[in-house]
Amino acid sequence: MTESTPSSTAATTRSLVESYLTAVNTHDWERLAQVFHPDVVVQHGMSISTTGRDKAIRLLTAVVAQFAEHEDRPTRFIVDGNVAAVEITFVGTRPDGVEVTFEAADVIDTDGTHITKVASWYDTAAVLPLVKGEQPA
């Protein structure tokens, strides 16, 4: 049996997070299914949350479908054991060609082999109108 060290645990966590980001950016839903725990919890902003691998993938598919192009660009990783915090610059293009850019942060929990929770945080009051093509309040 191989014992996990703090640095190897952090490296595994970072690898899982990088696989998650790549899968979402490339729409590789099969890869995402391999990374997600069967009972994964995905919280998107403060208003949308779902539990379960299939539901989580459907949610993320719907989120990215709002954009003709999109990319989550990680700008900073903080990893402590089985938890990672990732600062992200989201860059996307709506179907009407308007570019949408905003900052977000994901807090991601793992069990050492799968992602068990993703909590995505961003300023919904500013971002949702941009996504919908409306003026912010």
In brief, what are we looking at here?
The protein has 137 residues and is α+β, with helices and mostly antiparallel strands.
The proportion of residues forming helix, as a percent range, comes to: 25-40%
Report the principal-axis shape. Answer: globular
Count of domain modules = 1
Roughly what is the average pLDDT, rounded to an integer? 91
What is the CATH fold-level name?
Nuclear Transport Factor 2, Chain: A
Main beta-sheet strand count, sense and barrel state? 6 strands, mixed
Give the low-confidence spans.
none
Description:
The chain has 137 residues and is α+β, with helices and mostly antiparallel strands. The protein has one domain (6-130): Nuclear Transport Factor 2, Chain: A, CATH 3.10.450.50. The chain is built from four helices and six strands. The protein has helices at residues 6-26, 29-35, 53-64, 124-132; strands spanning 36-44, 48-51, 69-80, 83-93, 99-110, 115-121.
Considering the chains and any ligands shown, give keywords for the structure.
137 residues, 4 helices, alpha+beta, Nuclear Transport Factor 2, Chain: A, 40% strand, six-stranded mixed sheet
